[in-house]
């Protein structure tokens, strides 16, 4: 995972949500989210393509998704509560 500069955290309640999985899959321009049988899957090999556009945050309810900037002391992008 060398060179990966972000991490995506999903709330426990969001992981198994197949409706949310489809929304995230559609929202992210670089395919970091995939909708599969179990709900939301993070596509690790695409993480370093993140453009910090926040579209995933807008597609998800507050608290469901955090994009953590590993290069910035773990500062996170998240939807305000
Ligand atoms: S911030 Fe944009 S590019 Fe990054 S994971 Fe969210 S939707 Fe994808």
Describe the fold and architecture:
It is a single chain. The chain has helices spanning 12-15, 18-27, 55-59, and strands at residues 6-10, 33-36, 39-42, 65-69, 75-78. The protein is of the alpha+beta class. Strands 1-4-5 form a 3-stranded antiparallel β-sheet. Strands 2-3 form a two-stranded antiparallel ribbon. A hairpin with a 5-residue loop joins strand 4 and strand 5 (75-78). The longest helix has 10 residues, at 18-27. The radius of gyration is 12 Å and the shape is globular. Bound molecules: iron/sulfur cluster. Iron/sulfur cluster (SF4) is lined by residues 8, 27-30, 32, 50-56, 67.
Topology summary:
Blueprint: E1 6-10, H1 12-15, H2 18-27, E2 33-36, E3 39-42, H3 55-59, E4 65-69, E5 75-78
Antiparallel strand pairs: 1-4, 2-3, 4-5
Bound molecules: iron/sulfur cluster.
């Amino acid at each position: 995972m060398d060179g990966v500069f972000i991490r995506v955290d999903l709330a426990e309640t969001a992981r198994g949500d197949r409706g949310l999985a489809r929304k995230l899959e559609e929202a992210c321009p670089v395919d970091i989210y995939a909708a599969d049988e179990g709900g939301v899957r993070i596509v690790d090999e695409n993480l370093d393509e993140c453009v910090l556009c926040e579209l995933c945050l807008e597609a998800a309810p507050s608290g469901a998704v955090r994009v953590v900037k590993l290069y910035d002391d773990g500062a996170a992008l998240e939807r305000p509560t």
